[in-house]
Amino acid sequence: MLSQLSQLLEAAIACDEVLVPVWENIFAVLDLAPEQVKVVILGQDPYPDVNHAIGRAFAVPAGTTPLPGSLRNLFKEADSDLGHAHLAESDLRHWTSQGVLLLNTSLTTMAGASNSHAHLPWDVVTTQILKVVVAANPNVVAILWGKSAQKFASIFTSDRLIVSAHPSPLSAHRGFFGSRPFTRVNEMLATTKSGGIDW
């Protein structure tokens, strides 16, 4: 499957398609070993801006201004949920260093066009990544934001799932705001004596 994906992506590049994230960052999310993962945050696909996509869902380079809408809404909900300012910089390394896997259902898209690689067989790769994570930690907590992410719900234990609308400005007001995912994650982690995330 990876060979097929590689061929499809190379063909797209040959047709002058600008790939995001850059080739070497496509699998950047896998820097986190399966046994280190305590929480999975599953989104849709990379930001279509070449200056934003870094291979981790919702994250952008540290110091980015203005923030993309999804991340801005994510931080807004974090502040409301936690009752104080979030601690994470925009690259979200503060989260990943604590075991939060920031994965998208599609790991690539075309610059300027969201979800343009949804037709590629990324779902097979994403499914395998998630199954390896769950095998390493059956008590992993999963946050599934948006319909694309929710298709993977069956991989996880039902009482370890947090499901809501995507934080995109197009959908955040349809159930993302007020969903309190950050405190709910920590409540779930506490049931297995796993330390919470310092959001």
Keywords:
alpha/beta, Uracil-DNA Glycosylase, subunit E, two-stranded antiparallel sheet, 30% helix
Using the coordinates shown, work out and report the CATH topology: Uracil-DNA Glycosylase, subunit E
Structural class: alpha/beta
What is the CATH-assigned architecture? 3-Layer(aba) Sandwich
Q: Would you state the CATH class?
A: Alpha Beta
* CATH evolutionary superfamily: Uracil-DNA glycosylase-like domain
Rounded to an integer, what's the Rg over CA atoms?
16 Å
Query: What's the pLDDT, averaged over the residues?
Result: 94
Overall shape: it is globular
How many helical stretches? 6
What gap, in angstroms, lies between the N and C termini? Answer: 35 Å
Which percent band covers the strand fraction?
5-15%
Helix content: 25-40%
> How are the strands ordered across the major sheet?
3-2-5-6
**Total DSSP E strands:** 6
Unreliable runs: none
Any idea how many domains? 1
Protein architecture, described:
By secondary structure, this protein is α/β, with parallel strands linked by helices. The chain has a single domain, classed as Uracil-DNA glycosylase-like domain (Uracil-DNA Glycosylase, subunit E, 3-Layer(aba) Sandwich). Helices cover 30% and strands 12% of the residues. The protein is built from six helices and six strands. A four-stranded parallel beta sheet has the order 3-2-5-6. A two-stranded antiparallel ribbon has the order 1-4. The radius of gyration is 16 Å and the shape is globular. The N and C termini lie far apart (35 Å).
